[in-house]
Write a structure and sequence with these properties.
alpha/beta, eight-stranded parallel barrel, 236 residues
Length: 236
């Protein structure tokens, strides 16, 4: 599997997103559409970016009763996306229902999008895991357990911090995807992230895709920042 960098296009509007991506000229980086952009611009932003040639990770983190998630995934599957996610905390039953909906909604002849599950947000610290989420196991054990649940439900991988990518691979095998936000450089702040590392270290630990937002989108030269991250992560 070819590793890649996904740019988190966390912008409030279609106009801001397209203006940002215009800076890349003929390049078409893999992009993430999260809640802010999807809710602000609506589903049309998916078609707009797909028509431009971008691969798309639709990051909406579905978490509801299994039947609701199945029907929602059936709708999202028709959006012609490459990757979509749910919360692993929704249980194996919910994740299996999400996969069922995704299979039902994917048009014939089109590849089903990757379905991955969020284990623990990269903003969650080990202290918060214990004190606020009331999970007594370690962060690594919790994430490995959630990853095993996701694999049993038939999912393709999980979202975790790069620090837990090796534990996910150990628990679920090398083919099971580790999609990792929480990418920062030593000379930039962690912002609201708690568990972070660099693109190079993420590659060494075992990440398959890294998701980068502010270190690229807020950089003085976003294109150069993207190229640096991609070079360090993929070696290309």
């Amino acid at each position: 599997m070819e590793k890649d960098v996904i740019i988190a296009c966390d912008f409030p509007s279609q106009e801001a997103t397209l203006a940002f991506l215009e800076r890349f000229g003929d390049e078409r980086p893999f992009v993430k559409i999260g809640m802010e952009l999807f809710y602000g611009a609506g589903p049309d932003i998916v078609k707009k970016l797909r028509d431009r040639g971008h691969r798309i990770f639709l990051d909406l983190k579905l978490h509801d009763i299994p039947n609701t998630v199945r029907k929602a995934m059936r709708v999202l599957a028709a959006q012609d996306i490459d990757m979509v996610n749910v919360h692993a905390a929704g249980t194996r039953e919910m994740m299996a229902a999400a996969l069922q909906g995704l299979n039902e909604g994917t048009p014939e002849g089109r590849k089903r999008p990757y379905l991955i599950a969020v284990t623990q947000l990269t903003s969650t610290s080990p202290q918060a895991l214990a004190d606020q989420l009331y999970i007594s196991r370690s962060m690594e054990d919790t994430i490995a357990g959630y990853a095993r649940n996701a694999k049993e439900a038939g999912l393709d991988g999980v979202v975790c911090s790069p620090l837990e990518a090796a534990a996910v691979k150990k628990a679920c095998g090398q083919e099971f995807l580790a999609v990792t936000p929480g990418i920062r450089y030593p000379d930039t702040g962690a912002d609201d992230q708690s568990r972070v590392t660099t693109p190079e270290r993420a590659r060494q630990i075992g990440s398959d895709f890294i998701v980068i937002g502010r270190p690229i989108t807020a950089a003085d030269d976003p294109v150069a920042a993207y190229h640096k991250a991609r070079r360090e992560f993929t070696g290309k």
